What we know:
Number of strands: 17
Strand content: 15-25%
Distance between the termini: 57 Å
Radius of gyration: 19 Å
Oligomer: single chain
Amino acid sequence: MAPITVVEGRRLALSNLEKVLYPATGFTKGEVLHYYATVAEVLLPHLRDRTVSFLRYPDGPDGQVFFAKNVPPGTPEWVTTAEVPRVEGPSRMVLVQDLPSLMWAANLVTEFHTHQWLVGTPDEADRIVFDLDPGAPASIVQCCEVALWLRERLADDGIEAYAKTSGSKGLHLLAAVRGASSEQVSEYAKELAVEAEKAMPRLALHRMTRSLRPGKVFVDWSQNAARKTTATPYTLRARPEPTVSAPVTWEEIEECGAPDRLDFDARDLAPRVRDYGDLLAPLLDPDRAGALP
């Protein structure tokens, strides 16, 4: 029988705590749950009021990995859900609003992916995101070069950018925006991706064409579409090791000379949060959101 834990008055059955989810390091499900409890203070504000897509990997990254967008069977009645618009018709999705909901979701063994809009205002985007994806032999080092260019370009339009690792090979650039639809944000993001390719033709690419990508950084602007979700800050990833989508400083990006300089896993995050707090906290301040030109 799964042990029962009480989290802020909610009873949770946490299962298979000794199960190894990351064979490369021996990282267990119990350690996954401990990680999320440790970073909850900085993670929850980035989940709150955003419907969540779960990328589940209950048997580890070498097992079945699948997206679950609708409310999972057996979801406790106290977990907040909301109806969201979709092309094929409305559906009901989960919102992770508090620590009990976070620990329940973490027990499913999942990556957390969220939209670039809040559930109360699905017609208005409050984020712009660029997913910088390197094609070998390019790496996150080249992603940093592109990120620095995009940072300056966004600043020219009065938009302040922040960065996090993807937790995989690349880098995510995010900024808070206001007064625009997801379609408008997507159009603006595409314009900047095209500009980046023109400014750095040997380095940046705005097209997804596989044959063009070796040695370049794909500036994926399409993540801004209303239907799409992006890995949430601080989420663990379904990778061979328990890597994390970790916020990073611009100084770290400027000084990144090797991929391992920006390679963070669950064991690195508690010290980073202690030293830096939430580097992405400004994204949560509506007064710092920029307007599209």
